[in-house]
Amino acid sequence: MPPKRNGSRNADKSAAAAPPKAAELLSSRFAPGGYFRDRVVIVTGASSGIGRDLALTFAKMGAKVALIARRKSLLESLADEITAAGGDAFPLVADVTRRADVHDAIDRTVAHFGRIDILINSAGIAIPDRVETMSPADLERMMAVNLMGTLHTMQAVLPSMRSAGTGSIVNIASLAGRRGMPPLGAYCATKFAVVGLTEALRVELFGSGIRVSLVMPGVIDTPMVHGAGSTHSADQSKDPFKLMPDAIPAMPTQWVTWAVIAAVVFGLAEVDVPPGAVLMEKIAALFPGLTDAVLALGARLFDWATRR
Ligand SMILES: NC(=O)c1ccc[n+]([C@@H]2O[C@H](COP(=O)([O-])OP(=O)(O)OC[C@H]3O[C@@H](n4cnc5c(N)ncnc54)[C@H](OP(=O)(O)O)[C@@H]3O)[C@@H](O)[C@H]2O)c1
């Protein structure tokens, strides 16, 4: 987490976003015979936020979880917590932008657990800025993680899923992948790209036994929306991540976890968080001028609130 800028207000928000202890989630309710018993689940971005919650919940439901991210200590402590609570976790340090790293991590997962049933792509970064002034390098960074990382992991697991004739891939995109909005123009572009890639793969794999789903969250209470994105910017002096004003409500990570579980269990093509949000975006797309005016007003209010 970057240094806090607004004193106690942000300290309060960080406390609210503190990750749950695995023991709290696993201890009393851990069930070796749970719904995902012995299924092998790979979670990218498992060191933080949504990915961490997904790893804990799948472990609680009996799955063997492979944990991918770059921060080794966070992955190892999460794996230790899951193991101590009776689960089965395998931490794998990998940068998803590096194709060789990703293939190595997937090969090690197959060697360790014997197969792969579910891949969840949660690794992602957001560097908010205005399109007019943003650094092209920041867009390249986001593309490398959000789009290319997703491509690398999907291509790495597909041979194993193809030979098994079954599997599930869930990509965490965003509502920002259906409608461009400031100050997230470049991030939106990467998530539109993830949506396109995912939809095309779903059609390619139609009838193969491998299911491909999109989960489309709105604002979720994770380190990403509390300023972690600023550390990803090429221009550290600019610190483009504006801290989210308290007025914008963030949903709990568990809502995304439930959406992912619903996508896997029911083979859903797309799940929004909150439900129906993409439908609202599709209706808004019928009135682009009006939608632009409303979003422009919202963006100005956001700027005003973050500069107070
Ligand atoms: N929070 C929201 O409001 C929101 C809304 C819609 C969609 N999403 C999407 O949900 C996903 C999870 O976001 P979050 O909110 O949970 O953010 P987060 O708490 O900041 O977690 C991001 C995760 O991505 C990993 N990551 C980043 N770059 C990576 C790289 N090069 N290689 C491997 N792992 C990398 C990070 O791990 P390391 O730093 O340890 O590598 C971390 O575990 C993202 O795809 C995000 O775009 C979030």
Note down, in words, how this protein is organized:
The protein is α/β, with parallel strands linked by helices. The chain has a single domain (8-283), classed as Rossmann fold (3-Layer(aba) Sandwich), CATH 3.40.50.720. Helix content is 47%, strand content 13%. It contains 10 helices and 7 strands. Strands 3-2-1-4-5-6-7 form a 7-stranded parallel sheet, with helices on both faces. α4 (72-84) links the parallel β2 and β3. α3 (49-60) crosses α8 (253-266), α5 (99-113) packs parallel to α6 (136-164) and α6 (136-164) packs parallel to α7. It binds NADP nicotinamide-adenine-dinucleotide phosphate. Residues 44-45, 47-51, 69-71, 74, 95-97, 122-126, 145, 172, 174, 217, 219-220, 222-225, 228 line the site of NADP nicotinamide-adenine-dinucleotide phosphate.
Question: What's a concise summary of this model?
Answer:
The protein is of the alpha/beta class.
